[in-house]
Design goal:
Strand content: 25-35%
Distance between the termini: 39 Å
Radius of gyration: 15 Å
Structural class: alpha+beta
Largest sheet: 7 strands, mixed
Low-confidence stretches: none
CATH class: Alpha Beta
Helix content: 25-40%
Number of domains: 1
Shape: globular
Mean pLDDT: 85
Number of helices: 4
Order of helices and strands: EEEEHEHEEHH
CATH architecture: Alpha-Beta Complex
CATH topology: Nucleoside Triphosphate Pyrophosphohydrolase
Oligomer: single chain
Number of strands: 7
């Protein structure tokens, strides 16, 4: 059996001595705001993804496909799998039950992507309808699902204690 594997990519840029996150709004799946994400190779049934792709290659491919950006730096981030479990005390809406169950079966690889390109992202309208560069606070408030709020907070706290040089 093939292990289901996905990546989450958190595009960031520095602006006015602050960190901004790029979040994108899905065209489907409750139309929620999120980071860039996608499946590694064909592990989730995507026939158009390269077989044998590793998570780093996938992160770069998904970032380019979903935004048109090529990062100046892409940094792997080890987020413990328990962050993908929603708890009663979590802020935000619970993701749909079928997704909560599916997340238990998936291995996630997470990356921070430093972006220094000044042009707007180029979205695939079949996947995403809007984008926004914004502060952590604004991104956190726009994101609805509890699991994605927890992940964004983890990334932000990591960046505060481990600044990345672009």
């Amino acid at each position: 059996m093939v292990q289901k594997t996905m990546v989450n990519v958190y595009p960031i840029r520095h602006k006015n001595n602050d960190i901004e996150f790029l979040i994108i709004k899905r065209a489907t799946l409750s139309y929620n705001w999120q980071c860039v994400s996608g499946s590694v190779g064909d592990t989730m049934g995507a026939l158009d993804h390269p077989k044998g792709e590793d998570p780093l290659e996938c992160a770069k491919r998904e970032l380019f496909e979903e935004t048109g950006y090529i990062p100046t730096l892409i940094h792997p981030l080890n987020i413990p799998h328990e962050f993908y479990t929603e708890n009663e005390e979590d802020e935000g809406e619970k993701s749909p039950l079928h997704l909560q169950e599916a997340m238990k079966e998936i291995i996630f690889y997470n990356f921070i992507a430093c972006i220094d390109q000044s042009q707007d992202p180029v979205l695939n309208p079949a996947e995403h309808t809007a984008w926004k560069w914004c502060s952590f606070e604004i991104a956190y408030n726009l994101i609805e699902w509890a699991v994605e709020k927890k992940l964004l907070r983890f990334v932000y706290n990591y960046l505060i204690t481990n600044p990345l040089m672009m």
